[in-house]
């Protein structure tokens, strides 16, 4: 395993997470506040963020500094998970197989479909009136 700082970017919908890993004690800081404070104690978001660390058993080996932009809290949590997973593969390529098997390196391509002209929304049409 290499020494130093490791950087990666994670994405989900319109959320972007920039992640820096540094060797440390396992502290996670998101936008200058702790991860619990940032996600308001939402357990689902917290477990999503910690999943790559549990899969690779590195929860106490790295400090994580992240900046999140765009999207909602759920998408930001998944973007952060993606970013941490990618940064771990930069830190040690041997983690790649375990992270890939857990499906943590795949960027979720689902995003909101754009609204089309002449329609009420992406797929819903305006109500048709024959007369």
Q: Any overview of this molecule?
A:
The chain is of the alpha+beta class. It has one domain: Ribosomal Protein S5, domain 2, CATH 3.30.230. Helices cover 34% and strands 22% of the residues. It has four helices and five strands. It has helices at 35-38, 43-56, 73-91, 95-101, and strands at residues 6-12, 15-23, 28-30, 33-34, 62-69. A five-stranded mixed sheet has the order 1-2-5-3-4. A hairpin with a 2-residue loop joins strand 1 and strand 2. Helix 2 (43-56) runs parallel beside helix 3. The longest helix is centred in the middle third of the chain and has 19 residues, at 73-91.
Number of domains: 1
In CATH, the architecture is 2-Layer Sandwich
Radius of gyration: 18 Å
Give a count of the beta strands, DSSP E runs of length 2 or more: 5
Number of helices: 4
Order of helices and strands: EEEEHHEHH
Instruction: Give the class-level CATH name.
Output: Alpha Beta
Structural class: alpha+beta
Provide the low-confidence segments as ranges. none
Reported for the largest beta sheet, the result is:
5 strands, mixed
Measured between the Cα atoms of the first and last residue, the distance is 72 Å
Q: Based on CA inertia axes, which overall geometry fits?
A: elongated
Share of helix among residues?
25-40%
Average of per-residue pLDDT values? 93
Strand fraction band? Answer: 15-25%
